[in-house]
Design goal:
This protein is α+β, with helices and mostly antiparallel strands and 132 residues long. Helices cover 28% and strands 26% of the residues. Strands 1-6-5 form a 3-stranded antiparallel sheet, with no helix packed on it. It is globular and about 50 Å long. This is CRISPR-associated endoribonuclease Cas6. It holds the Pfam family CRISPR_Cas6.
């Protein structure tokens, strides 16, 4: 569930709920974790990206409850109000196996994902559901 606006982008353009994909979410989580590891721990993360991406076709997502929310903040540097936005709400992911993807998505809860994470955007919370 996206708590603060989750602003994932593709080629500099924010992705609306209907444009999001599991692939984009996983790669963003992996990229963020990797960057934080290199910057703060001076270590490169060893990960099987190909193996992770092989899971994507098996994963299903339901994002019809996601909505776009604009968020306004004042930029002292630019001397004007900035309108930022992203998706909020539940994004349901299902997969036959989470073994390769779970740790990256779990870590992303604390690192936040997407654009403007330093301002609190991109916070989400995972919930495990044995819906069946």
């Amino acid at each position: 569930m996206a708590i603060t606006p989750l602003r994932l982008q593709h080629q500099g353009k924010p992705l609306r709920p209907e444009e999001l994909s599991v692939r984009t979410l996983l790669l963003t989580a992996l990229r963020r974790a990797s960057l934080m590891s290199e910057l703060h721990m001076d270590r490169k993360i060893q990960v099987d990206v190909k193996g992770l991406l092989e899971l994507v076709p098996q994963m299903r997502d339901q994002r019809d409850a996601l909505t776009w929310r604009d968020w306004t903040r004042y930029s002292s540097r630019q001397g004007r109000e900035m309108i930022l936005g992203g998706v909020v709400g539940p994004w349901i992911l299902t997969a036959p196996s989470w073994s390769k993807a779970w740790s990256w998505l779990w870590l992303g809860q604390w690192l936040h994902l997407g654009k403007n994470v330093t301002m609190g955007l991109g916070q989400y919370h995972l919930e495990v559901c044995s819906c069946g």
